[in-house]
Amino acid sequence: MAALLLRTSRGLGACLRVATGCPSPSSCVVAAWSSARWPREGAVAWRTHAQVRHYSSSDKLSIDMDDKTGVAVLKLSNPPVNSLSLELLTELAIGLDKLEMNPSCRGVIMTSAHPHIFSAGLDVSEMMGKPTEHYREFWRAVQEMWLKLYGSSLVTIAAINGSSPAGGCLMAMCCDYRLMADNPKYSIGLNETKLGIVAPFWFRDTMMGVVGTRVTERSLQLGLMYSPAEAVHVGLVDRTVPEETVFEEARTEMARWLKIPDHARQITKSMMRKTTIDHLLAQRDSDISNFANFISKDSIQKSLTAYMQALRQPKK
Ligand SMILES: CC/C=C\C/C=C\C/C=C\CCC/C=C/C(=O)SCCNC(=O)CCNC(=O)[C@H](O)C(C)(C)COP(=O)(O)OP(=O)(O)OC[C@H]1O[C@@H](n2cnc3c(N)ncnc32)[C@H](O)[C@@H]1OP(=O)(O)O
């Protein structure tokens, strides 16, 4: 058991083989471990100096870590719609990594600084009119963000305070719990087919883990966007709350999750997610090539152009 308390600081994907005698990352089922999240002398000393630390140096992302509660707040702030550009994706992956390595950190609340939009998903302009090398780099960054968030050993809660299509929905689905503002104007879902593109297998697998096979199949084929109430009905969101209380409700929910001993919860989370993570890790390069080939096709570029033009039309 003592071996289980070793820190590896690498999220759920890192196998603590020493703990289970597991020979390889791919055959290890329960050994993934990030860090034993018990207070250490160093961490306590750190707390006396500063309770809240600002983590991110980017203006597109703020990360504030409260040393007293062990909870970090990660706020997307990339106007106008929090689209996930290469830069923001990279910042997200770095920020999540830093939190994973901080022994004081036990949970992350992810939310948006924008009043009505959680995230518009991947920045479509990163997928249009660029050279193949750019598409490859972009897609690796999308994968990396997913690996860090889906594979995080921390408690992750999405405080969804606005619309959340496609990649925005993916980020929310990576979290352990989702609260959404009950505003019927907001929507959430994987709408990729409506853009003429295809949600890759790991988007699908993430959704299946949240809502099951049947709802995923219907949602993906039709590119369904759900209102908050519908999202609760299909299980995509755990709970709706009045808009002005989303953040406080997320804090209350976090406190509930933090009552569970970290080691037990982390191993359980790893058991649930490891197969899905390994699936992408095993096919990372081919997934990048598939994306780059697919997105470079003239027909796909035309679809994206038409979609963006339609988006720019005045709304009725
Ligand atoms: C064989 C093949 C097998 C496998 C395939 C292999 C690989 C897979 C291939 C591809 C996978 C790709 C996966 C893609 C995931 C994504 O996330 S795609 C992005 C999808 N996102 C959307 O569709 C959201 C579109 N946006 C909206 O619905 C709305 O903008 C909003 C609800 C978010 C906000 O509405 P409003 O507040 O009304 O704001 P506006 O609509 O006026 O937008 C303001 C401004 O922002 C621009 N914009 C909006 N969204 C995006 C975006 N995602 N990226 C870039 N830019 C965006 C919009 O055009 C406006 O710009 P301007 O007009 O001001 O210039």
UniProtKB/TrEMBL annotation:
PROSITE patterns, per the entry: ENOYL_COA_HYDRATASE (PS00166)
**A cellular component term (GO) from this record?**
mitochondrial matrix
Question: What span is annotated as the signal peptide, if there is one?
Answer: none
Under which pathway is this protein filed?
Lipid metabolism; fatty acid beta-oxidation
Q: Which reaction does it catalyse?
A: (3Z)-decenoyl-CoA = (2E)-decenoyl-CoA; (3Z)-dodecenoyl-CoA = (2E)-dodecenoyl-CoA; (2E)-tetradecenoyl-CoA = (3Z)-tetradecenoyl-CoA; (3Z)-octenoyl-CoA = (2E)-octenoyl-CoA
What this chain does, per the entry, is described as:
Key enzyme of fatty acid beta-oxidation. Able to isomerize both 3-cis (3Z) and 3-trans (3E) double bonds into the 2-trans (2E) form in a range of enoyl-CoA species, with a preference for (3Z)-enoyl-CoAs over (3E)-enoyl-CoAs. The catalytic efficiency of this enzyme is not affected by the fatty acyl chain length.
Q: What is this protein called?
A: Enoyl-CoA delta isomerase 1, mitochondrial
The encoding gene is ECI1
